[in-house]
Amino acid sequence: MTEDKFPDGSPATPTPATPSNEAEPSNSSEPSTDSTTSSAGTPPRSGSPRRRGRRGGRNRNRSSATHPNAGARASESNDTPLDTDIEGDWRSPEADRGLTSDDIATDAREDAGLISSDKPKIGDSRPAPQVAIPEVVSEPKPARRRRRGGRGRGSSQTNNPNTSSPTPARADAPDDVVRSDYGEVSSSGLDDLDEATLARRKGRTRKGRPAGRYTMCVHVRDNGHVHTALLEGRVLIEHSVSGAGDPDTSIDGNIYLGRVQNVLPGMEAAFVDIATPKNGVIYTRDVAWDRNEFEGQTPKIEGLLKNGQNVIVQVTKNPIGAKGARLTQEVSLSGRFVVMVPNASDTYGISKRLPDNERKRLRRILDGLRPPDAGLIVRTAAEGASADELERDIQRLRQQWEQISELAKRSNSPRLLYQEPTLVLRLLREEFTKEYRGVVVDNRELYEEVKTYIEAVTPELSERIEYYDEEAEGISVFEHWHVQEQLLKALDRKVWLPSGGSLIVERTEALTVIDVNTGKNVGKSNLEETVYRNNLEAAAEVARQLRLRDIGGIIVIDFIDMEIRANRIRVTEALREALARDKTRTEVFEISDLGLVEMTRKRVSEGLIESMSQGCPTCDGRGYVLDETMLAEMQ
User: Fold this and answer.
1) Which end of the chain is less packed: N or C, by CB atoms within 10 Å?
2) What is the DSSP letter of 323?
3) 280 - beta bridge partners?
């Protein structure tokens, strides 16, 4: 098996494979790993050393004194503990949850320090340098400069009656539904930046072309499905599919006016009708309530919700199989630079990934922009953002929430209130930075929509959006970037390792099992060394496969037995380091006496195989067919 290399000759090392609980009560035996508390304390003075936790920022102990729902958060499986120390900020109870069902939540919480900043960004191999960023002062200008051109203002957009900003056309929702808009389409915010900051935001170039670590390929098939592939160098590390069929299967992040159908005190949950085929489920810890009203006591679900009650809820997990969507009353709206949490004024944080000078600059700007009735979490993408850009982002989110609230007041029956943009735009909103070499789109209409969106929110990176003409090139974009062959390998149950070893990935209803084998790897010196090296390779590849195949829930890894305890510890640490690049929350336990590693990975939606396959009609997906003649002889 040959190793891919970059054009400069360096090896293209595979990067490990992106929260999440069952959407309705289940008999699953998954262990509960939810965080139950948050920390509060006196903010440290500027310049004080930053506390550092375990690698990846996981498994810190926290006080349970400040979270009103602490007693109820232990029953949900597949969520990992979150760090709660926002440097210089108090952590509110409302912030101790997944903000949305997709990458919005994890990215925003990591940026805000709700998850430790020690966890690197996707694909990072070293901590980000602490670069001193010059102060950016926004001065009023006599006139605004208009954006050149007029891309994307044709059939791909429509004027939303609820907002003056252009929004993408969505045929799967009513006209009066509030949608995530682009904001003011103007690049005037760049006029406020000095040359050094502007050059840093534009990123590096090589031979006149943008340079970066990642490439995103977007392929639109004839059936309307949109495939999005993320590559690091030449290696495929993520793949996602958005279907053009049923709009009720990909609803994470959407906000609904729901009606409580049934309260289950024994399950500490309630079923809510949200105008989808399956009712959603909301647990006690996800219900918003006033601590002063209950005098610090954790209320019961029957004291918070009543049958027939109308509630505003947000989807944090897509419906999977026979299970409905997972809901929360703690609504959040994501922008390019900030995440706004309405009715949670105590929630305030700034990404700990940012340098200290930049954090101080952003804090001074936000002190005059913070709304009195909502919380803000400033994301890493706000690095170098001007005061005008931050103000426009906050105002746009406030207007969206006002429209959502007004629409909810006018409605009496369950309905959709707010719809998230398409999957491609969500990925770009959360992840597109100067580290991306480019975004290649093979559909002209989608290209115009993406180009317009990037010119609106990140105009300095708009040159990295490219249109791929399949007819002119002669091959599809996936074949050109070698995505197709890697995708086929990701659907196979057997994965080969560079040294000749292999992984066997088996998925069941309860959990996913991964078996590590030496295969053709016979080693050189002794058995312990051979097994140890093989397990190290397997740890890196397991993390990549989990991310690529989007496997969630309980995962059991059967590493080859190692006699030396230090080797077992190093293999576990290697697995944690590889998983630290995954934006989806994970938790890894030590190798057991049986040589097994138990871990959890948050599940938001169905995995790669489920999204691209269906059960066999002959054997019902069991993999074998009963011999009816043998059964007939037994009668």
Assistant:
1) C
2) B
3) 272
Per-residue CA distances from 475 to 437, 446, 479, 499, 624 (Å):
21, 19, 6, 32, 38
Average pLDDT, whole number, for the chain? 74
pTM: 0.67
Please enumerate in sequence order all residues whose Cβ is within 8 A of that of 356, keeping only pairs 6 or more positions apart, or say none. 46, 47, 130
Neighbours of 269 (CB within 10 A): 24
**Residue 600 in contact with residue 78, Cβ under 8 Å?**
yes
Q: What are phi and psi of 195, to 5 degrees?
A: -65, -40
Report how far residue 604's alpha carbon sits from residue 102's, in angstroms, rounded to the nearest whole number: 7
356, two tokens: 């200290």
CA atoms of 609 and 621, how far apart (whole Å)? 13
Taking the CA atoms of residue 326, residue 327, residue 332 and residue 336 in that order, the dihedral angle to the nearest 10 degrees is: 30
For strand 310-317 and strand 338-342, is the pairing parallel, antiparallel, or unpaired? unpaired
Strand duo 310-317 + 255-264: pairing: antiparallel
Do 173 and 416 contact (CB within 8 A), yes or no?
A: yes
Query: How many whole angstroms separate alpha carbon 164 and alpha carbon 245?
Result: 29
Task: Report pLDDT digits (tens) over 186-205.
Answer: 444 565 566 776 777 788 88
Residue 328 forms beta bridges with which residues?
314
Q: Residues 82, 35: contact at Cβ < 8 Å?
A: yes
Is residue 248 exposed (0-12), middle (13-18) or buried (19+ Cβ within 10 Å)?
middle
Distance CA 89, CA 81 (A): 19
